[in-house]
Design brief:
single chain, 84 residues, mainly alpha, Arc Repressor Mutant, subunit A, 3-stranded antiparallel β-sheet, 4 helices
Length: 84
């Protein structure tokens, strides 16, 4: 398996598994109308990026998590315990 120069293998695997959501999918997750999600992105209250100059918005799980956690809160990602 190829990996980027100077990158740890754990980070490379984590990047490979990152999930992207469209505005409609993010709206379903947040129980909002897609237009409200677009407004939040325009006001920079919800992080997102575009692939290309006029491409559609892509939102990661980290963007959604950051939006849901109140500002200044101590946020820690909880993972499931691995079965042995």
């Amino acid at each position: 398996m190829l990996k980027p120069f100077g990158a740890k293998i754990e980070n490379f695997v984590r990047l490979k598994r990152m999930r992207y959501f469209t505005v409609t999918e993010a709206a379903d997750l947040l129980h909002m109308h897609p237009e409200v999600v677009r407004r939040l992105i325009a006001r920079q209250e919800l992080g997102a990026f575009r692939k290309g100059p006029r491409g559609r918005f892509l939102i990661t799980q980290k963007h959604i998590d950051a939006f849901l956690v109140p500002a200044g809160a101590d946020y820690k990602v909880r993972t499931r315990a691995k079965a042995i």
